[in-house]
TrEMBL record:
Reactions catalysed according to its record: aldehydo-D-ribose 5-phosphate = D-ribulose 5-phosphate
GO molecular function: ribose-5-phosphate isomerase activity
Organism: Schizopora paradoxa
Tree of life domain: Eukaryota
One annotated GO biological process: pentose-phosphate shunt, non-oxidative branch
GO cellular component annotations of the record: cytoplasm
Record's keyword terms, sorted: Isomerase
Protein's recorded name: Ribose-5-phosphate isomerase
Membership in a protein family: Belongs to the ribose 5-phosphate isomerase family.
Length: 238
């Protein structure tokens, strides 16, 4: 599909430009675009990858590394990362991101922050001007289960009356809420456009609420974002 090929385009371009021979400690994000990142890194060859360590941002990310027969590392052992590449749910004109559609944003933010260079790769649907325009599910907030009920009320009062606890959906999944790799819940909190024009202020307000573990707003963290387009071109924001 156009979307899949645009994910691949973004991933390949970003890897070709930002995963260089001197980069040895590499953070791998989560979602449906990063498999193409791993694919392109593997294509750089065993010679280069033999000396590298790859840090995951969750179970799915770890599986990509393990199945790709790349060396799996732990951020405890490699707290200083050369490059982290990850997807995003939406990216605004200032490279601020909504992340957490895949409920992995705590570990993603740890590896994004610990990296010298943090690069976002996405299909054209994520290329936006103001956050919340295309990704309408709300800001993902990872929360401690013990705190969620009161926290949900506090998020409602903060300006997101439609915020909800993210539930596992559909037959054969799981009764009850989504549980992250860290054993926490996720609240999805939509805010109005005016609020989303200043994501950093919103991030600070949400982060102060008792029980919040991490917020899916990555403000001023990415050095560049690569978007594959349906026409086969790649748009780069930096
Ligand atoms: O949850 C996240 O932040 C992931 O990076 C994910 O949302 C990326 O989306 P994708 O599946 O379109 O790459």
């Amino acid at each position: 599909s156009k979307v899949e090929s645009s994910k691949r385009l973004a991933a390949y371009e970003a890897v070709d430009r930002h995963i260089l021979p001197e980069h040895k400690i590499i953070g791998i994000g989560s979602g449906s675009t990063v498999p193409y990142v791993v694919e392109r890194i593997i294509a750089q060859g065993e010679e280069l990858n033999h000396d590298r360590v790859f840090l995951p941002t969750g179970f799915q990310s770890k599986e990509l590394i393990v199945n790709g027969r790349l060396r799996l590392g732990d951020v405890d052992q490699y707290p200083n990362i050369d490059v982290t590449i990850d997807g995003a749910d939406e990216v605004d004109h200032d490279l601020n991101c909504i992340k957490g559609g895949g409920a992995c944003h705590l570990r993603e933010k740890v590896l994004a922050e610990a990296a010298q260079t943090f690069i976002v790769v996405a299909d054209y649907r994520k290329n936006s001007d103001v956050l919340g325009t295309t990704y309408k599910q709300g800001v993902p907030i990872e929360v401690a289960p013990f705190a969620y009920a009161k926290l949900l009320q506090n998020v409602h009062h903060l300006g997101s009356p439609t915020a909800t606890l993210r539930m596992a959906k559909g037959a054969g999944t799981k009764a009850g809420p989504i549980v992250t790799d860290n054993g926490n819940f996720v609240i999805d909190a939509p805010f109005d456009e005016q609020t989303m024009k200043d994501p950093y202020s919103l991030l600070k307000k949400i982060k102060m609420l008792t029980g919040v573990v991490e917020v899916g707003l990555f403000c001023g963290m990415a050095q560049a974002a690569y978007f594959g387009n349906a026409d086969g071109t790649v748009t780069i924001k930096w």
